[in-house]
């Protein structure tokens, strides 16, 4: 069995008295786009910076492309590309110069691919770093990363400054990259983007991984909303395990249910006779809120 | 009138904010400018013990073209007031111009470039509020500086009217350069461009009067600094040239407002030039990047220090006459070398080395700036290792230091050779100047050590430079103990040109520099990148 391109176990990192990463586990398989979710300050960027060998871990195990990112940083970096969340460019270098420079420092750029990407992202490569807007600075870093011939992309909120058209261009590029066998760690706030792109996600909170798995698996852990119209008044729903927020109005009922416990609930409904049924699968938003939201916090 | 009020709504609030942000800067600039003038009076009175001595020095100065070009028309040089105006007038005008330029640029174009002006403009303030507040901030600064200067000179005991005129003329120069900086901020679309244009105006003003004072007086009348000097403080004061400064300042400000009203937020009258779409083939390593980022600064420092060296070199042969024969002179120049000319050059070598240290330390501060701006992170996420990245920056710093020091040495010897025709100066002065690379690199080593171990405290490396200055200026005067002087890396080389080169201290200093650097680099390779 080959080692996964990215494997973190029990990673701990503190800055003074603040604990930024607290026994973090994270595993990214070859050829997948892995979503890395968490609110501001959860430790996403810290984790990525440890993975890049910019920060020194306190304890735990970190393996990147089969090597140690702290001791082998430069060698491993030739096989990956990174886009920081907050891109700041050298004020007197043009975007085109930055793209070429970063590409060469990584071991080479394919000029055709570079020009295609510049055109795709509608980037003006002759402007100087200081005159780019946030979105355009991000495009420079994205083009530099996507033009690189690498096997792993580390993207830290790469689209926070992009408009929707550029966002879809970005998604296409990531899908192409995966189709060629590449692996992506995508930290993001934009849940629609994660739902669109990611095969698996890890949710991190206070420096710990609180949930990891495919979107399907994670949906399983949360609730589905059900609206139903029955042949008669509903019976026995309130006694069922996993049913929340039940509202009964004559022959109609509306409730949320733990997705794993759908079967007994449906059986109870069928026993009365179902006239119409609408279910809504949980969105990633709900997944996210389940871990961070005040609503769910107060329930617990 | 209502439209003016509407356009500047809220400007007083902005003014208070600017004043608050700038209060320390304002204070230091003003105190520094006034000290520049008053210290001339103190040093002149300290240097010359008798009027005959003073007259002889003044005659020598009047005959030295390089001096005239640097300082201004020679008037009443055998009086304290005449010397003050001559030595400090042009330099002070340039300095107050730079202060005004930095204040204006920082509150107008820089804010616009960073997008903060947009934030302010979206609130209930008028369109011209920032412009008005920035202009008034700069004007307030130049008025304070002028007042302190005038008051300082009066307090020292110089003639009241002339001292006030010296301060007022200085302030009016500042007002003129405030106006030209305001225009520059409308023309250029970047902060760097603004400083480039405004700095060029100041440089042109200085250059025009230099050429004019040496041979073609008409040119001096094209320069605001020339107008200031034409007020003739302490040598037959006249006020009317000040009017030229007032009118010039007003015209420039009106022009700036007119340009401002005709342009969009964030744009400049001169469009930004596009740069290259692809990088040159040479830009492919950490070293190439560091050189690309620093080359302009290396060239500017080399050029500047070359001129400084020329200036020192061209007056060296007259040192005996110029500096008088007071006890203070003996302390500063003659104590170790015996001969005043040799003593003058010994001091000049260290002085130029101290100036070159300014380059070296600011160059060695670059890695930290790169780290704080996130540029280090971007570079280090590629195939560049930490040590290669830092090594590239150190290499550029060392290379630049050698170039800057060599330029100083060539300038010093060239200036001397121009005046005396003695080409042997290149051997006697340029080589000892090059040896000064060693103490400069010791300060670089301190900066590098701090960068690795405690990057937040890196600016403490400047204290080594401060120590070097203090020991050079006051070591003899205050009879500082040997161990204290020994802490200054500049005090260990042989006293050239009087003494022959000694290998041991040179090598020892380099070894210290290398050792400090290695510890710094090791610590850097073990620590977190911000």
UniProtKB/TrEMBL annotation, chain A:
SUPFAM superfamilies: P-loop containing nucleoside triphosphate hydrolases. It is a peripheral membrane protein. One of its GO terms (biological process) is response to antibiotic. Coiled coil: none annotated. It comes from the Bacteria. InterPro entries: AAA+_ATPase, ABC_transporter-like_ATP-bd, ABC_transporter-like_CS, ABC_transporter_ATP-binding, P-loop_NTPase. The keyword Transport applies. GO terms for cellular component: plasma membrane. GO terms for molecular function: ATP binding; ATP hydrolysis activity. PANTHER family: ABC TRANSPORTER ATP-BINDING PROTEIN, ABC TRANSPORTER ATP-BINDING PROTEIN NATA. This is ABC-2 type transport system ATP-binding protein.
UniProtKB/TrEMBL annotation, chain B:
The chain crosses the membrane at residues 26-44, 84-104, 125-158, 164-185, 197-219, 239-261, 298-315, 343-361, 394-419, 431-453, 460-483, 503-524. Keywords: Membrane, Transmembrane, Transmembrane helix. It comes from the Bacteria. This is ABC-2 type transport system permease protein. It comes from Nocardioides psychrotolerans.
């Amino acid at each position: 069995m080959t080692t996964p391109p990215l494997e973190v176990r029990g990673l701990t990192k503190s800055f003074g008295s603040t604990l930024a990463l607290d026994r973090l586990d994270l595993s990214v398989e070859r050829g997948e786009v892995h979503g890395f979710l968490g609110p501001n300050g959860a430790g996403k960027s810290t984790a990525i910076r440890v993975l890049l060998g910019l920060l020194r871990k306190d304890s735990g195990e970190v393996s990147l492309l089969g090597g140690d990112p702290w001791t082998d940083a430069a060698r491993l970096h030739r096989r990956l590309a990174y886009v920081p969340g907050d891109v700041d460019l050298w004020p007197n270098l043009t975007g085109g110069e930055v793209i070429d420079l970063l590409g060469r420092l990584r071991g080479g750029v394919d000029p055709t691919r570079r020009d295609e990407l510049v055109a795709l992202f509608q980037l003006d490569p002759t402007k100087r770093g200081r005159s780019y807007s946030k979105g355009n600075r991000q495009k420079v870093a994205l083009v530099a990363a996507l033009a690189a011939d690498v096997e792993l992309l580390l993207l830290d909120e790469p689209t926070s400054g992009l408009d929707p058209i550029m966002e879809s261009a970005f998604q296409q590029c990531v899908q192409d990259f995966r189709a060629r066998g590449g692996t992506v760690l995508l930290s993001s706030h934009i849940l629609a983007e994660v739902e669109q792109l990611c095969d698996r996600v890890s949710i991190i909170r206070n420096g710990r991984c609180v949930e990891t798995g495919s979107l399907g698996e994670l949906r399983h852990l949360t609730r589905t909303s059900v609206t139903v119209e029955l042949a008669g008044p509903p019976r026995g729903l309130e006694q069922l395990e996993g049913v929340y927020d039940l509202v009964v109005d004559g022959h109609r009922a509306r409730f949320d249910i733990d997705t794993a416990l759908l079967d007994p609930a449906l059986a109870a409904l069928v026993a009365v006779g179902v006239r119409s049924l609408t279910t809504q699968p949980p969105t990633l938003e709900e997944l996210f809120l389940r871990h961070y939201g005040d609503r769910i916090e107060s329930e617990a | 009138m209502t439209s003016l009020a509407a356009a500047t709504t809220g400007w007083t609030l902005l003014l208070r904010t600017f004043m608050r942000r700038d209060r320390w800067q304002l204070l230091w600039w003003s105190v520094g400018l006034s000290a520049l003038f008053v210290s001339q009076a103190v040093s002149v009175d300290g240097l010359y013990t008798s009027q005959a001595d003073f007259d002889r020095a003044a005659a020598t100065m009047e005959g030295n073209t390089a001096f005239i070009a640097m300082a201004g028309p020679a008037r009443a040089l055998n009086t304290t007031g005449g010397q003050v105006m001559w030595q400090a007038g042009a330099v002070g005008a340039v300095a107050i111009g730079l202060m005004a330029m930095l204040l204006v640029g920082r509150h107008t174009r820089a804010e616009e470039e960073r997008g903060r002006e947009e934030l302010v403009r979206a609130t209930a303030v008028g369109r011209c509020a920032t412009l008005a507040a920035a202009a008034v901030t700069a004007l307030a600064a130049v008025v304070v500086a002028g007042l302190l200067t005038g008051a300082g000179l009066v307090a020292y005991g110089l003639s009241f009217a002339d001292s006030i005129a010296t301060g007022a003329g200085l302030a009016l120069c500042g007002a003129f350069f405030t106006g030209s900086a305001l225009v520059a901020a409308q023309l250029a679309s970047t902060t760097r461009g603004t400083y480039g244009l405004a700095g060029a105006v100041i440089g042109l003003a200085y250059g025009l009067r230099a050429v004019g004072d040496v041979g073609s007086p008409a040119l001096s009348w094209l320069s605001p600094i020339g107008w200031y000097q034409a007020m003739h403080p302490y040598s037959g004061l006249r006020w009317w040239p000040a009017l030229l400064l007032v009118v010039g300042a007003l015209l420039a400000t009106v022009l700036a407002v007119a340009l401002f009203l005709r342009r969009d937020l964030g744009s400049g009258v001169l469009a930004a030039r596009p740069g290259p779409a692809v990088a040159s083939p040479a830009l492919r390593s950490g070293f190439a990047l560091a050189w690309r980022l620093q080359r302009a600064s290396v060239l500017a420092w080399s050029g500047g220090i070359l001129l400084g060296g020329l200036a020192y070199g061209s007056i060296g042969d007259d040192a005996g006459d110029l500096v008088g024969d007071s006890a203070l002179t003996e302390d500063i120049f003659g104590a170790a070398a015996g001969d005043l000319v040799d003593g003058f050059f010994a001091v000049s070598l260290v002085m130029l080395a101290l100036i070159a240290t300014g380059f070296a330390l600011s160059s060695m501060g670059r890695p930290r700036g790169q780290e704080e701006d996130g540029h280090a992170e971007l570079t280090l996420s590629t195939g560049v290792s930490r040590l290669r990245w830092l090594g590239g920056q150190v290499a550029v710093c060392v290379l630049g230091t050698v170039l800057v020091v060599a330029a100083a040495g060539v300038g010093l010897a060239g200036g001397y050779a121009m005046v005396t025709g003695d080409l042997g100066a290149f051997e006697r002065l340029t080589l000892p100047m090059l040896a000064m690379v060693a103490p400069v690199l010791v300060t670089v080593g301190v900066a590098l050590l701090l960068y690795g171990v405690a990057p937040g405290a890196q600016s403490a490396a400047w204290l080594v430079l401060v120590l070097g200055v203090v020991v050079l200026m006051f070591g003899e005067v205050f009879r500082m103990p040997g161990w204290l002087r020994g802490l200054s890396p500049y005090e260990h080389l042989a006293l050239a040109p009087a003494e022959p080169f000694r290998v041991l201290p040179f090598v020892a200093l380099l070894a210290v520099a290398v050792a400090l650097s290695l510890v710094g680099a090791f610590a850097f390779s073990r620590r977190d990148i911000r």
